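Researcher: Sequence recovery benchmark, item below. Answer with residues only.
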């Protein structure tokens, strides 16, 4: 059995991931969503962008890549948040010394 060929463009990921991050943060602020629910929304945005924009003629490819877009946005946001918190903690420790 051969695996299906899924072609994607690097611009899809470069476009999709920041858009998903921005949209989820806007929804979180304007609709007071619980923080634990935001990753699920990011996944749905990733699936939506992939199925309806990037891979509209290949449903399986759209679902497959949508998971990557959604989880890449979740991971990118978590990484940025962790780095910012670590940087702030480091700065506050330097001020105490």
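Model:
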């Amino acid at each position: 059995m051969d695996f299906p060929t899924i072609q994607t463009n690097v611009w899809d990921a470069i476009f999709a991931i920041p858009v998903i991050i921005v949209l989820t943060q806007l929804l979180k602020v304007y609709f007071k969503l619980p923080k634990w629910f935001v990753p699920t929304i990011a996944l749905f945005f990733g699936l939506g962008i992939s199925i309806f924009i990037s891979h509209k003629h290949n449903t399986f490819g759209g679902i497959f890549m949508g998971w990557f877009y959604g989880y890449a946005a979740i991971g990118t946001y978590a990484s940025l948040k962790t780095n910012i918190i670590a940087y702030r903690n480091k700065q506050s420790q330097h001020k105490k010394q």
